[in-house]
Specification:
Strand order of the largest sheet: 1-2-4-3-5-10-6-9
Helix content: 25-40%
Strand content: 15-25%
Structural class: alpha/beta
Distance between the termini: 37 Å
Oligomer: single chain
Largest sheet: 8 strands, mixed
Radius of gyration: 19 Å
Number of helices: 8
Length: 292
Amino acid sequence: MNRNHPHSPCIRWTVNAMTSNNDSGNNDPGGPLAGWTIKLGESPIVGTAIHSGTDVGRACRSLMCLSDPDRRREEDPFTERFIADFPTQIIVHQSRFQVDLNRARDAAVYRSPDQSWGLKVWREQPDEDIVKGALSFHDAFYSELNRVLAGIEKRHGTFVLVDVHSYNHRRDGPEAMPTSRDVAPDINIGTSSMDRERWAPVVDAFIETLRGQRLDGEPIDVRENVSFQGKGEQTRFVHANFPETGCAIAVEFKKIFMDEWSGEPDWGTIERLRAMLASTVPVLESALRAMP
């Protein structure tokens, strides 16, 4: 991990958090696989894609009975593209099936199918060393997130973290009817863990900017707290640790940008959605500047 200038703009570094960190100056002190990538920019706006990763360690993979296609169907592929224009970006490379950073620490390793959409993850339960390693990753990520956000808070006073995810809407199969649009907006905004009244100028500006966009000639459907309410661990962490200065907005893109069964991306739609999200950055910056 490069520790020389941890808060300089546009520095990119990687961390293998499954191993112990050191101060030797090596970019990856633990080995070739990195747990996450962080890019810092000169702005109070942060984009995260903490479920975009697909990496699974060899020890975990040897105990998993879940197929790669089933596993990847419940990950959030391509979400790192949606935040590619954000000044600060946090992208996690580890699969949520090894450790889910958007769950509380005691639920971060899926132990039973009821925690993982009815999917049986493990051929046999992971041993204590694997669980301990997964929880160490969870601890290290949130320690680093806290450090990064504290630095942004110090420089800018307030910040917005846009927590980007995606969700399936054809769970009954590739040929089955999709989930009704009544309960499955194109973009779901989750705000339940924040002080909604305090952050209303920021969140409302964000939502209205997205609602002003069109996709394939139609207004994009953006609604708040419909299919998801923003109850994940990352938004909770931000609001618990930065209650007066940090606004974390959970954003769930319906998988209209890919075939969720084959995994095939629609790159044109991905780039249009990326541009839509990028258009919110100056709006969020302006809304923060106007906060009392």
